[in-house]
Write a structure and sequence with these properties.
The protein is flat, with a radius of gyration of 21 Å. About 45% of the residues lie in helices and about 10% in strands. It starts with 20 loop residues before the first strand and ends in a 7-residue tail after the last helix. It has 2 domains: about 80 residues, Ribosomal Protein L15, Chain: K, domain 2, CATH 3.100.10; about 180 residues, Four Helix Bundle (Hemerythrin (Met), subunit A). It contains 10 helices and 8 strands. The protein is α/β, with parallel strands linked by helices. A 4-stranded mixed β-sheet has the order 1-5-7-8, with helices on both faces. Strands 4-3-2-6 form a 4-stranded mixed β-sheet. It holds the Pfam family Cas_Cas1.
Length: about 300
Amino acid sequence: MLKGRLGLDTARVPHADRHGLIWLDRGELCVVSGCLHFVAGKDSLTPYDLQVPHQAVSMILLGPGSSVTHDALRLLARHGTLLAAVGQDGVRSYTAPPLMPDRSDIARRQAELWGNPRRRISVARKMYALRLGEVLPHRNLDTLRGIEGARVKTTYRLMAQRHGIEWHGRRYDRQNPTAADIPNQAINHAATAVQAVAAIAVQSLAAIPQLGFIHEDSGQAFVLDIADLYRDSLTLKIAFTAAKKAETDSQTIDRLVRREAGALFRRENIVGAMIETIKQVLRMEEADGAGSCGDA
């Protein structure tokens, strides 16, 4: 009885031919005459109704102040369009219900690399090479982690000097996070923001968050792997820029970090960059050449 009620039953556009992500906030995602609409500003002087091209995008990021109807969820699921609930400017990722991606090539490739101990450490070494700028000869994960940890301490100090921030070392008490000084609090907030955008990138490719190559125990292990690749170029840049602003700005450090992160994510198209990084880490070009999977 409901077949075709919310659009053409056979309509389906492959994700390889879609146009990425669309971000919406403060409105209702609903279905009007079989089409997806985002209705916002009902009680304002400038209400608007946006028809959303749900078959032409891979993922909809739904921001604060928004709601979604049952019909909208059903329409998105039918066309394989992912929906994620995110924070202001996308600097938090709360949930992304799986809506059945149209391909499994990324997930299969990730599982293939993760399931082979030799190939798994090879991917981990490649990720460290992307972060550290050189291929380390070591093949023991604990040794690689130790080398990274030593270099990170130096990076913190140099980045703090570059931004004119007084630095007393990395300190973080999970039980009392606000006890840390402003630079350390800024790093904590920035890391959360970067992890959120990494989660969006992982979700948009239908990769498996639990199968990390460096991180292991977390249910978001692969997300943490990808976020760590951007620690120097993104996380610390956001954190120390916000910490410097906090010296003269009365806003909370959390708010300063959120604004800095949101602006940087949009300006530098970080989600798109992370998607390409994930493909590079999983060596999708190599997999394509071997004929084991198609386009992402």
